Amino acid sequence: MKSSPEIIKKINSLKEKVVDADYKYYVLAEPDIEDYTYDMLMKELIELEEKYPELRTEDSPTQRVSGEPTKRFKVVQHEVPMLSLSNSYNFDELIDFDKRIKSLIKDQKYEYVCELKFDGVAVSLVYKNGKFTLGATRGDGTKGDDVTNNLKTIRAIPLSVRSDQYKDFEVRGEVFIKKDDFLRINEEQEIRGEKLFANARNTSAGTLKLKDNKVVASRPLNIFTYYLRTADTKLTSHYESLNILKDLRFPVNQHFKKVSTIDEVKRFCDEIEDVRDNLPYEIDGVVVKIDSLAQQEQVGYVSRSPRWAIAYKFKAKQQITKIKSISLQVGRIGTITPVANLEPVFLAGSTISRATLHNFDEIERKDIREGDYVKIEKGGDVIPKVVEVIVDKRFKESKKFATPSKCPVCNSKLEKPEDEVNYYCVNYFCPAQIKGRILHFVCRDAMEIEGLGESIVEIFLDKGFIKDYTDIYSLKNHKEELVKLERFGKKSVENILNAIEESKNKPFDRVLFAIGIRHIGFRTARLIANNFGSMEKLSSAREEEINEIHEVGPKIAESLFNFFKDEKSIKLIDKLKKAGLNFEMESSGEMKINENFKDKTFVLTGTLEKYTRSKASEIIEELGGKVTSSISKKTDYVLAGKDAGSKLDKAKSLGVRVISEEEFEEMVG
After folding, report:
1. What pTM, to 2 d.p., does this model score?
2. Per the domain annotation, does 73 fall within a domain?
3. Which of 15, 17, 117, 642 is catalytic?
């Protein structure tokens, strides 16, 4: 049906009304029309666009959720890298930052802009001719995933911008979920009997990577923008760009301020830290930037971080709650770990109901008892831990926690090696250990079998499809039975079976690590695999031969030797060999020695953005260095990531050089 000028005018008018209502509701939080009125406007617009499809445009509000689920995300190159920020954890480090700025810009006057550091996911929004054309995750800073359709579901992001001055530009921001919305999501998960999400940030990141944007649209994602890059005009200051973003109807957080001195920066940080808990969203600090864009360019960059900006991180948040009981977890090698079951309390973005107590020596040292009120915090804002007991609130009948003598799962006697703090269940067939070994076998650093998460493994164990990790390679024989299981389908089963087949290509060192031999970590497995070259040579090696490998001590040698003497172990290895796994190392040629790494000792601490610790360790060793877990005066470098803890403090006290991830990459070259 041919459209008339009146129809075109009507559709454009409806679009304007819906877009204006979205802006007032999602950005300003000042809705001016009833939900019913909004729904009727949208309904009329949808009907007209269906009747006149030639008038349906990409920037129409009806197109926020569109099309079929994405098969996979395209990788896109950021035109300008999305840099990470250096962190500071106290005001002395901010003063040092200010001194560096002064020395770099000499006698010029300068100002700072202070903004909130949101605990979310950084994204880039690209506009061409005023229309939102590309949205990408930060990724590794230079390349990210194309998540345009998922970002279109966020109603606070304008699909088009009406401006004569700004046509082609890029906006960056942080996608997040509000605290109340996160609680509501988990309530819905609990009602459906599904696994609860750990925290709002991870939920935001996971939602952006979902392949069905209709599911994404059902999640309450939000965004604050904080960066504008444009070819249309010459910006002069960061403060100016924030106000331009507001004028263009992008959501900009109200808590930003231009200041003249580092003391004013401190006052802003203190003020925000005081109101942090009252904000409707999670933040973990303040970002401080030089305001002048010309001065930013003058100060420059250090590898992948700007010299002109720094993040001031707040102290870990704490809460007081009660220990209802202490339960015991059994790990994949039988390690018994005590866990405090707490009265639920909201802390740093999530509801905490459990906290690790590490070991029984820790319980005794802090005198932790059931019924105690305790102060808890999240280590690095991630792992809940008990900081101290509030002894004044302890009830009189309180009793010390008794160290157990039997396994809580299989009732076997526990053993404690003389030189260790941990107790162990030595029953190899303990159900808890079997499940733990399987989960370790399929994890990312081991065989990396996507789709075999904890809930799926539990189902397969309960149904008898698997009894240990070797049975994973026989699941293809149960394909028809698997498809009939609740929550499974032909496609999901095929994906799991394909991932299992692909895992057979993993190198021998990954297989050795996946098997889960006590004391054999990722790096140790690589050392041993490189030295012996094959499973056949390793399994027939004498204990003394294993012990001769550099950095392989008597404990590791004894553990390996005993493993290959055990009949049960031999059967497991035979089954894996028949399944077609790699039992020999491929020759990788001569080691590429890098003088920055040759004979240097590294310690890793904190969370790296681009690498897992195992990957970073692998790079160090490939280039001639070695990685250890403890710091001493003989340590050459400490590679510190986000939320580095006590190791960072020790490195500074010993005068050991601390390097960032960016400096590490420069050394790698």
Report:
1. 0.56
2. no
3. 117
